[in-house]
Design goal:
Length: 278
């Protein structure tokens, strides 16, 4: 698999060696469910790992977790065990593809249907977010796959991120839910940078149109224009891969959706404030 991201050894000196600053935490959000957040999160984690970055993928879809299902793994422990007090956060990590030391990444899985996770109090979610920020010190990159919706616990996890990638499709319901998320998060955590990724676009032009619509609304009503991290084309191979619980990034790493998400990963490695305006 050949990714176009810079290898760790090619990164500037201040980015190499023992980390003294927290990892960049990227939360993947959408407002609406079923738009491709989990597919995007898994593929971003693979892309960063292949580029030599120590990467942790966190299932932040509390209560309806399914990263493990898409990855086709059966983890021995998960976040539900952490909140129940059975294991420490860092001990709930499962290596994927050999883990960060062998070119893979770590995953902190959730547990689908877990009442313990779905009904966390605000204090428990704040503690979880603080724990993730501490654990992030051991990684170069942390990806948090958020659940759908704009409820407070989702916002609390989003607030722990440096950047939020809003995954949006051309469906009006996706756009209105994404706008609602962007607006609520802007009020709740103004310092979190929000960028947009268009998924399932039928063409580049259609993806650009969707981006223009959402960014216009943000500029007009919220006073800022979110940067476009990239567009992922619709491709039936995504559904086929998810159905067979074999990630598309391992079964067909040169497929168009994977190449598109590698482009998004490259864009996300650009330091804040230095992105090209699109
Ligand atoms: N680029 C794409 N092309 C085609 N289908 C896609 C694409 N991305 C996602 N999908 C479809 O959307 C479904 C939901 O994806 P998923 O990542 O589980 O969404 P979410 O985490 O937002 O609920 C997938 O099962 C797949 O069928
Ligand atoms: Mg999901």
């Amino acid at each position: 698999m050949s990714f176009l991201l810079p290898k760790s050894e090619n990164r500037p000196a201040q980015m190499r060696g023992r980390r003294v600053e927290p990892a960049t935490i990227i939360a993947v959000a959408s407002g609406k469910g079923g738009v491709g957040k989990t597919f995007m999160s898994i593929t971003l984690a693979s892309a960063f790992a292949q580029a030599g970055r120590r990467t942790l993928l966190v299932d932040g879809d509390l209560g309806l977790a399914n990263i493990d299902v898409q990855l086709g793994i059966e983890p021995e422990t998960d976040l539900a065990a952490v909140v129940s007090g059975w294991v420490e956060l860092e001990d709930a990590v499962t290596p994927v593809d050999g883990g960060p030391s062998r070119g893979g990444f770590d995953v902190l899985p959730g547990r689908s249907g877990s009442g313990a996770l779905a009904e966390l109090s605000s204090e428990e979610v704040a503690r979880l977010a603080a724990g993730l920020s501490a654990l992030a010190l051991q990684y170069d990159q942390v990806i948090v796959d958020l659940g759908a919706g704009i409820e407070a616990n989702c916002m609390r996890l989003a607030r722990a991120a440096d950047r939020v990638v809003m995954v949006i499709t051309d469906e009006p319901t996706s756009m209105t839910d994404a706008y609602a998320f962007i607006k609520v998060l802007k009020g709740y955590a103004p310092s979190v940078q929000q960028v947009v990724a268009i998924n399932q676009a039928m063409s580049r032009a259609a993806g650009q149109q969707t981006y223009e619509a959402i960014s216009q609304a943000c500029e007009t009503f919220l006073g800022f224009k979110p940067h476009l991290a990239g567009t992922v084309l619709h491709d039936d191979s995504v559904r086929e891969a998810i159905r067979s619980q074999c990630t598309l990034v391992s079964s067909d790493p040169s497929s168009q959706p994977i190449m598109d998400i590698i482009g998004i990963a490259q864009s996300l490695l650009t330091p804040r404030g230095q992105e090209l305006r699109r």
